[in-house]
Each structure stands twice: as C-alpha cells, then as structure tokens.
Design brief:
The complex is a heterodimer of chains A (about 170) and B (about 400). With about 170 residues, chain A is α+β, with helices and mostly antiparallel strands. Chain A folds into two domains: about 40 residues, Orthogonal Bundle (Arc Repressor Mutant, subunit A); about 80 residues, Alpha-Beta Plaits (2-Layer Sandwich). In chain A, a hairpin with a 6-residue loop joins β2 and β3. The longest helix of chain A is centred in the first third of the chain and has 13 residues. Chain B has about 400 residues and is of the alpha/beta class. Chain B folds into two domains: about 130 residues, Aspartate Aminotransferase, domain 1, CATH 3.90.1150; about 240 residues, Aspartate Aminotransferase, domain 2 (3-Layer(aba) Sandwich). Chain B has a seven-stranded mixed sheet with strand order 2-8-7-6-5-3-4, sandwiched between helices. Chain B has a three-stranded antiparallel sheet with strand order 9-12-11. Chain B has a two-stranded parallel sheet with strand order 1-10. Classes of the chains: A alpha+beta (about 170), B alpha/beta (about 400). At the A-B interface, α2 of A face α3, α12 and α14 of B.
Chain lengths: ~170, ~400
C-alpha cells in the first residue's frame, strides 16, 4: 500500500470534494507548486490511488428506471484463495456495482443495479445463487438514497447568511 | 463615528427624538448597515461581505442542544453560566493558550462576545474616560464606548506595518484621561495578528500608563502559520486585562450568541452585576451547545480552519492577480486589499463593485482610521464563489484602469 504523504492526502481530499479542480487551483489552495501537484496526481493515477474521476448522480431526479439492491452473501471460502476467487467471479458481472468483504453475519456485500426488480431478481437467482461456494443470499432493495460519498442528496441548505455583516 | 444630532424627519419622529438619550442620538448607524441595505433584495450577488463562517454549526453541537431540550433543560443557569461550561472554558484556555483562570470567580459566560465587551466597558468607564482603539477595527467598539459615556480615541494602524499596533502609535494617543485599551487580534477587518515580540513593547506602555486592556480574541483559533499569542500571556498583563472571546468564529456558532469574559475576580464580579440585572444568564441551550463544542469540537474546528486557510491563499493570489495590492492576512477570515491605486474611495469602489459587478464587499472606511483605501473581503465562502468574485473584481479594476486612461 502506497504511503500517501501530506500533499497527496490533501489533493485527494480536495478532488473528492470536486474532481474538476485543476492542478493550478489545487496548488493555490494548498500553497504548493503547480508542478508538484501535477506530479502527485500523475503518480496517484499511476498507482491506482486515484482510480477514476466520477460524478455522483442522484438518479431519482432523472427520468430513468433503475433499482439498486444490496445483497448479503454468505460463502464457503476456497482453500488457498479464501474469498478472493469468489469475489472476482462476482465483481466481474457488469451489473455488480460494488463488492465488499464484510465482518459479521455475512461475507460479501454486493451492490447490484438493474433496470427493474425482475432484472435484479434474475441476476440473484441465475448468476449469484448457483455459484458453488455461495451458501445463501439476502437481497435488500434500496428504496431511497439519502446520502452517498458524504453528499446529502436532498440537502437544500442554502447560504442564508446576511449579505453583509460585521 | 460621532456627529451632530441625527436629523429625523416627520412630525412624530421629531417629537419623539426629544425623548431619546443624547448619547444614543449621536451614534450613527453603521456603514456596514448602509451597505447591507444597498445589497438587500438584490439577486445573484456574490457576497464577500459576511463576517461569519460559511459552515453550519457542527452537527454534534446542534444535536447536543436538541437533546438537552428534549430532556427539558430549559431553565435559568447560574448568572455566570453553568459551572461545567466555565470549567470547560478554563480547561480550554489552559490547553490552547496556557492561561489559567479560576472558573469559580474569573469567568463569566455572556450573550456573545459583544455582551462581554459591553459589560467590560460599562463596568470600567467613568464619564469622560478615554478609550484607546486601534483602527481599522470591528465596528462596535467606538459606538459602544460612546454609549457607555466614554470617549473613543482611534489609533491609526497602517498597511506598511501590516496593521499591527505599535508602541509609538499607542503612546502618541495617551493622555491623562486614557483608561482602557481595546485590542482585537487576530483583527477584523485586516487579518493582522500580533506575535510575542509585537506585544512586548505594547505591554510596557500599558504598564507604564496604568491602562486596563480589553482583549477581544474571538478569532484566536483562526490563525494561519503561527499560533495565536494572547495579550494576557504577557508578564503582568493577566490582572489588568479582560479577555473576551466566544464560540461564534471558531465553532461556526454565530447565531447562538455564546461568548465569555475572563479576568481579575473584582472585574468579573463588577461585570456580573450588570449581566445579572440585564440578561440574567446566557441562554441555557446555547451553554449546552458551547460545552459540547469545547469538549468534542476541536477536530471539526481544525477542518474548518484548514479550509479557510486554503481559501485565504486563493483570495490573496486572486486579488493580487486582479491588480490590487494585498498584504497576507495571518488570521481571521478577511483579506484587506488596497484599492487606493484605482483612483476611487473605498466607498465608491465598493458601490461600483456591488452595482456593476454584483459582488458585495465592505468599504474599509467603515472600520475607522486607516481603513480608507481598503476593502474588506471575507473569504468565508465557497471556492467556486470566490473564484467568480475574484474574476469580477478583476474586471472592475480593469474597467477603472481603462476609464483613467481614457480621461488622461
């Protein structure tokens, strides 16, 4: 695991807030040289510390049918490989958006996205459950997303400070 | 700040004005208020005029207050404030600034730092006393001194000194009637801070002329690069200084109106008399929130300070690129660029910036002596808003340059 130094950590924090920030702006905000910031970003991209620049979308506001389910999966680990091989078999499906190895009552938490309930249900019954090592699945459909990646979706808090104050 | 009798219009106002206290009548409404009225109601304005954090009070602080209300904690507290809170303030001042106050008789919690300043002045002023006020400064010191029966005496500080108070500047204004020196560092509006070396000669003058000091350290947590040095920490100054501070700036708690004052037990006791007969105690729910902020709020505070620091770099660079001279503010959250080179007064510049470019900032002239030729720009606003505001300021500066060249 890469030792992320102070500048890199701050660059990451600022890019997490807004991925469109330019190296020039980041350098100004952090009191660093632009070249230094550029190098740090390039290095982190190369090392896959920065994996992707993404947009957080509130799909509920888009006229677009999609459902998300969080599926708790119990697994028998494989000799020698533990959960790695089985996790890989699962995360390679394009409809799987994220996979986490969890402590607690189940092993993997799998986020699956589909156009409707049936699509997700089919994925679970036809792809996920039949995998040999999968002991059980428990599918939880997401009804509403309130917060993702630290961003509150329904946050309409405006800057209601007085225009000018002492 | 003080002018002849305010002119009021209308029959009713005229007759009513004769009832008003002459002390109050001679106070002008603040220049900030005037600018606020100009900006109010306009749309799409980017405001750099705000003297408060753009963060909401951290959630755990708000939640602690809500929880206390749910449990029915809605009564009076002791006049000086909840003992736990005073204890918390004492611990905080010890940990952060190495200052030791006895929570039993040296700390009083107040309705904002403003009440603390008012109490201190009212407890100390005899009619005709002169109150020394380094300027440019927070707009309330001078009027509140006048209302208390004192005579405000401004001490001009200068951009060339990075708006630090100097011993010579102070001494030049001292007369036999001088009694109190009001300090406000880190400074609103200049962002100036004072180091131990800067303070030492000031403390000598204070001692030599036997002054009492009111040190408003509300921005103490907001320094960048070097830590705040409290005037109280100078040898011999603790007993002759009333330390005033509060929760508004460090913990984004402006609307809670939670402040405090610390000082010699006799001074605090005198202030407590006025406090108990006027407001009784600071709001109990605010006290609960303040205690939570002190106990668990340091991490959030650090995060906010980090963010101000980033924006400070952005605004200073942006203002300089726009063609304005700007010293580097070391504290608070204001940049104080010089607009003298544009050929406009600070009032004219701020008006044109507001009307033509829809950016609200406060003309330096409202902050007293030495403020003319400057503009107070608060950087407690988002990076994207700051960027847009800086572009607009640049456009105004360029336009003014063109106008001057066309005239020539």
């Amino acid at each position: 695991m890469e030792q992320v130094n102070e500048l890199k950590r701050k660059v990451l924090e600022l890019l997490k807030e807004d991925a469109r920030r330019t190296p020039e702006l980041l350098a100004t905000l952090l009191g660093a040289e632009e070249e230094e910031v550029k190098t740090a970003i390039e290095q982190m991209e190369k090392d896959h510390v920065i994996v992707k620049y993404a947009t957080v979308v509130n799909w509920d506001k888009v006229d677009d049918e999609r459902v998300t389910a969080l599926i708790e999966v119990q697994i028998t680990p494989e000799r020698g490989r533990g959960f790695e091989g089985i996790a890989e078999r699962i995360y390679l499906y394009p409809q799987v958006k994220s996979v986490y190895l969890m402590s607690g009552a189940y092993d993997l938490l799998v986020e699956v996205e589909g156009r409707n309930l049936r699509e997700v249900a089919n994925f679970v019954s036809e792809k996920l459950s039949p995998i040999d090592s999968v002991l059980s699945t428990k599918t939880n459909f997401t009804l509403k997303k309130y917060k993702q990646d630290g961003i509150i979706f329904e946050d309409h808090e405006e800057d209601n400070r007085l225009m000018i104050s002492p | 700040m003080i002018t002849n009798k305010t002119q009021l219009s209308g029959e009713q106002s005229k007759s009513m004005s004769s009832y008003l206290s002459p002390l109050v009548q001679q106070i002008q409404p603040s220049g900030i208020r005037r600018f606020f009225d100009m900006a109010a109601g306009s749309k799409d304005i980017i405001s750099l005029g705000v003297g408060e954090p753009d963060f909401k009070t951290p959630w755990h602080v708000r939640e602690a207050c809500v929880y206390s209300l749910e449990r029915g904690f809605t009564g009076y507290t002791s006049n000086a404030g909840m003992p736990e809170l005073r204890e918390g303030i004492a611990n905080y001042l010890h940990t952060r600034f190495n200052l030791d106050y006895d929570p039993a008789n040296q700390i009083i919690t107040t309705v904002g730092g403003s009440e603390a300043i008012d109490l201190a002045l009212r407890a100390l002023i005899s009619p005709g006393d002169e109150i020394l006020i380094p300027e440019p400064c927070y707009i309330s010191y001078s009027p509140i001194t006048s209302i208390g029966g004192g005579i405000p005496v401004g001490i001009e500080t200068f951009g060339k000194d990075r708006f630090k108070l100097t011993a010579e500047g102070l001494e030049a204004k001292i007369t036999p009637r001088s009694k109190i020196l009001i300090l406000c560092y880190p400074s609103n509006p200049t962002g100036a801070i004072m180091s131990r070396e800067d303070w030492e000669p000031i403390a000598k003058v204070v001692e030599k002329h036997d002054l009492i000091v009111i040190s408003d350290e509300i921005y103490a947590e907001l320094t960048y690069g070097s830590n705040h040095v409290s005037f109280v920490s100078l040898p011999g100054m603790m007993d002759r200084t009333i330390l005033v501070s509060g929760f508004s700036k460090a913990f984004a708690m402006t609307g809670w109106r939670m402040g405090y004052a610390c000082g010699h037990p006799e001074l605090i006791s005198a202030m407590l008399k006025i406090h108990q007969y006027t407001v009784m105690c600071a709001p109990s729910m605010g006290q609960v929130a303040a205690l939570e902020a002190l106990t668990n709020g340091m991490e959030e505070k650090d995060r906010m300070v980090d963010s101000y620091n980033q924006r400070r770099r952005l605004i200073v660079k942006g203002l300089r690129e726009a063609g304005l001279e700007c010293h580097e503010p070391q504290g608070a959250f204001y940049a104080f660029p010089s607009i003298a080179g544009t050929g406009l007064t600070s009032d004219e510049f701020a008006k044109r910036l507001l009307r033509e470019f829809r950016v609200a900032a406060v003309p330096g002239s409202v902050f007293g002596l030495g403020g003319e030729g400057y503009l107070r720009c608060s950087y407690a606003t988002s990076v994207s808003q700051l960027n847009e505001a800086l572009e607009r300021i640049g456009a105004l500066v360029a336009l003014l340059k063109n106008e001057r060249e066309n005239k020539a």
